[in-house]
Design brief:
The structure is a single chain. The protein is mainly alpha-helical and about 475 residues long. Helix content is about 70%, strand content about 0%. It has 17 helices and 2 strands. A two-stranded antiparallel ribbon has the order 1-2. It is globular.
Length: about 475
């Protein structure tokens, strides 16, 4: 098992080098590598379903005697399994989708053959870094791969090299790196006080330092997951190629932020309750602030970006419930990582298909696309129903569990949270449905006068994601039920 888990990190890294060397002929080699990694991930999770597997693979010689236990290794448990499946499966679908999207026939952003090798180099390295985050057995290794995701996302956001994309990439790098500095401070305090980088070492800290470390980790997570007040970088990051936007929002960068808090809180359940209240309160502020931006967006990708910010708030709200004693709420937050991931990937890749065929992402310029792009239209509405929590689609199950977890808190907090979540969900559903109707139904606009759905790799990915919007809770629910036992 250790060899397989390590291979999932090494293979995409080697594949990145191969893709760079192949240049314009790299796309199908990249698809093959990403597909192999996804297969290994599914096998690994299935082979040890619900169990915890840990192995040490090395240390740092200069830390001999200064740290208790090995420094590097692998850890696969139910929490890590969720992120691993999301990162590798959506990663593979992103690479396959890119095989058609990143071409000179793209009416939104034509990409010549000379840029293929560079693109797949960055994307496969991004995949390797996310696998490393999912399998990290301690805070030090998690921090190293966390920072690698920051570098990869910066380079991909700035991929097109124009002024707007370069500015957006720099902004993302700057804000998320601020979070990385707070993460580093938390790791240093933990090491100095406990001689350990292990997750459960948090519980061994003195109470005052434990509060400080958890606060630093929260700031790191807020910056990485684009939560208030660090949220502004994510909408601007829509200057990236749409497959990258999909991976960034559904499975990568921002999910590393919420994963950090899930890992920290569940490792000993030692988060101070007041910080749990702060985490939950900021999640609610983020959810409703992001919702307020829906109504002024004309760029379809920016609208979906604000939706992502709100849904990351859902995950952190679930984590906060866990810190306050509701294991059901915590499990709901982790389940939402998977359910939102596949739902949001569906919507983003539909937006990419629209831009590929029509050359625009402007909501006001589009209308009647369902007549010429039926697969994309069906996929968009499936993703819409899934992400807003309409049964029996994916996010219904995580939101329902979140409401149940909130009610277990007792007192006035539970009913208030239920009311706020329902209000956000209803408003989000209404507005998203309005956007879907505007883009796909009604009279055909000039921009929407196109002939067909996008090429087959893109259409196949959309069909697979539609199935996943229904099926992913059946896979993720048994895993999350094993967290906290």
């Amino acid at each position: 098992m250790t060899a397989v888990l390590l291979a999932m990190v090494v293979l995409p890294a080697l594949g990145a080098v191969l893709a760079f060397g192949l240049g314009r002929n790299s796309r199908w080699a990249a698809v093959s590598v990403a597909g192999l990694v996804a297969v290994l991930a599914v096998w690994s999770v299935a082979a040890g379903f619900g169990t915890t597997y840990r192995a040490a693979v090395g240390t740092l010689p200069w830390l001999a005697g200064a740290v208790d236990g090995p420094v590097f290794g692998v850890l696969l448990d139910p929490l890590g399994s969720i992120l691993l499946l999301v990162a590798t499966l959506i990663g593979f679908l992103t690479v396959l989708y890119s095989a058609a999207y990143m071409s000179d026939r793209n009416r939104d952003h034509a990409v010549g053959p000379s840029l293929q090798g560079s693109y797949y180099f960055r994307l496969l390295l991004f995949l390797a870094s996310m696998v490393g985050v999912a399998l990290a057995p301690n805070f030090l290794q998690l921090f190293l791969f966390w920072e690698l995701t920051t570098v990869c996302s910066w380079s991909l956001i700035a991929f097109y090299g124009n002024q707007k994309s370069l500015r957006a990439g720099f902004k993302a790098l700057l804000i998320t790196h601020v979070g990385g500095l707070f993460f580093l401070l938390a790791v240093l305090i933990l090491f100095v006080q406990t001689r350990s980088f292990e997750f459960d070492a948090l519980a061994r800290l003195p109470e005052s330092l434990r509060r400080l470390v958890f606060l630093f980790l929260m700031i790191a997570a807020w910056a990485k997951a684009a939560q208030v007040p660090f949220h502004t970088w994510l909408p601007d990051a829509m200057e990236a190629p749409t497959p990258i936007s999909a991976y960034l929002h559904a499975a990568a960068m921002v999910k590393a932020g919420v994963f950090l808090m899930a890992r920290a809180v569940s490792s000993g359940w030692a988060m101070p309750p007041r910080l749990g209240l702060l985490l939950g309160g900021m999640a609610l502020v983020t959810m409703f602030l992001a919702l307020s931006y829906y109504f002024v967006q004309d760029d379809l990708k920016r609208l979906l970006a604000y939706s992502t910010i709100a849904h990351l708030g859902y995950v952190l709200l679930g984590v906060a419930l866990g810190a306050l004693g509701s294991v059901t709420g915590f499990r709901a937050g982790v389940l939402h990582i998977a359910c939102h991931g596949f739902s949001k990937a569906t919507l983003f890749l539909c937006a990419g298909a629209i831009a590929y065929v029509t050359g625009t992402r402007s909501i006001s310029a589009l209308g009647g696309l369902a007549r010429s792009m039926p697969i994309t239209a069906v996929a968009f509405f499936v993703g819409l129903l899934a992400v807003t929590g309409v049964p029996p689609f994916a996010c219904f199950w995580s939101k329902f569990m979140l409401l149940a977890g909130a009610m277990k808190l007792g007192g006035i907090i539970g009913p208030v949270l239920v009311g706020l979540v329902l209000v956000e969900s209803l408003i989000s559903f209404g507005w998203m449905l309005r956007v879907g109707q505007k883009v796909f139904l009604g009279p055909v606009t000039q921009a929407a006068a196109v002939k067909s759905d996008p090429p087959w790799p893109m259409s196949v990915v959309l069909v697979v994601l539609m199935v996943a919007c229904l099926a992913i809770p059946a896979v993720a629910m048994p895993l999350v039920q094993m967290i906290g036992r």
